[in-house]
Amino acid sequence: VEIFFLCRNSETFLSSIIKTSQLIQSGSPKIYRLNAVTKITEGLKTVTVGTKNVNRLNRTILLLGETGTGKSTLIDLLVNYAMGVKWGDEVWFKIVEEKTTSQSKSQTSDVIMYQIFGFGGKTLPVSLTLVDTPGYGDNRDGRNDDIIAERLLKWFTSHGGVHKVDAVGLVLKASDNRLSDRLGYVFNSVASLFGANMEKNIFALLTHSDGGPPDNALTALADAQIKYAKDEQGEPVHFMFNNRQSTPRTGRYTEALKFAWDFSEDQMKRFMEVLNVTEAETLRTTVEVINQLNQLKECIINIQDKLKLIELKKTQIDQEKVLYIKCEEKMKANENYEEDVDEPYKDKEPIEGGSWWFFWVKGATSCRQCEETCHHKCTCTFLNGYYCRIFDDRGHCTVCTNKCEREHHVKEEWIYVPKTRKVRKTYEDIKKKYLEGLEGMEKHSSTLEQMQQEMEKLLEQEHEGLEKSLQHITRLESIALNV
């Protein structure tokens, strides 16, 4: 973008930026909206100012906080600091768009990445990438927060996304004396996405500061047991910012506003100095953490299905015992006997899903041999979930009972669900089962023994699922910041 080249003749750097920016408020300071390019792809929104220089070092900062904490102003402050804007310039630039109420409701799940390029080292020798999560805490339930976590994972794994993080900023007001349950959940849930080494890269960014000690906010973070960076003395690393940079400079408040400007500029300088000596964390561990969490979730679902089958099998055994005794008694009296009993089976239950052309959008991946659903919310776009993450390097499923090969799996708009159905049992049925047990199975002397073996097999599978879950938990404890 032309505004970011050094100006020719007598034009200054800022005046060239002003020429292509939109004046949104006159006075002192004059407020301009920067000329930025916005792209939105599958919920991933990118706002870019300038042209990327692949030879220039980039710093990536992820900002977390509830609506109303001043994240937008903090992002604008980072941009103006990078541009080298000073008090005497009497200008202020904005990059964050102020949303209307309707926009806030409809766009709360957008994760926004601001890319700040081309300022030629005016203040910083690096370019900036700022990742904002504006939707955290905007609704009354946690569903939107889960959506944002998924969007963050997309940024971490996509080709043009974020693959390292220099800092995670926990944004809250300096006067906050406690963290809401939602904010504590936000900080901890995002921290759980990162590896154990990420703690040194997490900083408290305290807004609306008057320059005094932020005891309230630091105590609130400590009470909520939030993990973030500590200095050599064990004190929490934090930076304070005032939100008055764009306030009109009139009358007796000008001196106070000048102090607020200088204070925030000094804090920003300290923040950048700390970033310069803090090693960035790659997100390879983060991706492994997410995969471990997803596999753990599928293991838990599989265990829950096994528990349902165990209960159903127990009921069937109890009913079979009663029926066997009755039939045995009636056999002695040469009477036929019939009775309805419950029999467990697997049914296919439709789910929401579908495909577009030759690519799947949503569906579930199931094993036809084991009659088990291995991945309930599979978003793999290839037919039959060929590249679904449940398959290991050998092409075997890591979830279904027999660890079947990929070819035995299908991706469809249904899942297997354990159910029961009424079947009519008679003495002849019991006798037939009894003879089959004698003739066909050396280890079983009766139908009840066969059912008991099935029960033991289910219990063994449940135990294996618990062991697998424990392995995932143990791995997460060793690599994740929060478990």
From TrEMBL:
Molecular function GO terms recorded: GTP binding
One Pfam family this sequence matches: Septin
Coiled-coil regions listed in the entry: 441-468
InterPro entries found in the cross-reference section: G_SEPTIN_dom, P-loop_NTPase, Sigma_54_int_dom_ATP-bd_1
Domain Septin-type G: 59-144
Signal peptide (residue range): none
Superkingdom field: Eukaryota
Keywords: Coiled coil, GTP-binding, Nucleotide-binding
Annotated family: Belongs to the TRAFAC class TrmE-Era-EngA-EngB-Septin-like GTPase superfamily. Septin GTPase family.
Name of the molecule in the record: Septin-type G domain-containing protein
Organism: Takifugu rubripes
